[in-house]
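User: Predict the complex with adenosine-5'-diphosphate.
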Amino acid sequence: AALLEIRELSKSFRTDSKTVQALHHIELDVQEGEFVTVIGPSGCGKSTLLRIVAGLDVGYEGQATLDGRAISGPGIDKGFIFQEPRLFPWLTVEKNIAADLSLRNPEVKRRVGELIELVRLNGFEKAYPKELSGGMAQRVSIARALLRNPRILLLDEPFGALDAFTRAHMQEVLLDIWRRNGTTMIFVTHDIDEAVFLGSRIVILKPRPGEIRAKIGVDLPYP
Ligand code: ADP
Ligand code: ADP
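Assistant: Here is the predicted structure with adenosine-5'-diphosphate placed in the model:
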């Protein structure tokens, strides 16, 4: 069975004046170890889809399972990286990365140091979020998501705020993690070049007049 199975998934948002159908009967399978990039124009439901897979949004119709279990329940280790960095302003960089683990544990300390190296924030261990640029803060968020070597990483346009050089570096970091650990990746972007560069498969979320429907893309040979 696929690691992620989505069947007949629909989601609408009701506001006072109208109902927006964000997802309409989505079918999607993601196998363990795939690097799936999800592209589509703004507003086609990419973030909504990812939030559902992340378990952050439970008000949907249809089925979504991860490793054979309902997404809402406890399950496999997931890492999320959002469009905007989400850091605790009162914690230093290293404490933001360690999250609920104690840096007094030498194993945690070592892992955090390794991640700081990976996202090139050496020297900023003791800095607070307000001292960082947007791109640096995003790299802290990325390091935090990697802390526990999650089996699946969910990324919502994570590199949008990075300059071209840092973006290229972070893309390589992500590919390296994927190749070495076989982490399953679901990566949302509206950048087609990025989707082609990163993905072992591209999924196109395509809005149609009056409906929004998932179209499953071709398998691309990976170099
Ligand atoms: P994308 O990530 O592809 O830009 P989204 O998943 O953010 O698309 O949004 C899909 C649709 O659902 C859009 O029309 C958006 O306006 C609507 N939507 C998303 N979140 C909400 C919300 N919390 N309340 C109302 N409408 C929403
Ligand atoms: P990005 O937003 O991609 O992190 P910036 O252009 O903002 O890049 O910063 C480039 C470099 O300048 C950073 O990698 C960092 O070394 C340094 N820098 C940026 N902002 C700060 C800051 N507030 N304090 C110290 N150094 C900074």
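Residues 32 and 136 are 30 Å apart (CA to CA).
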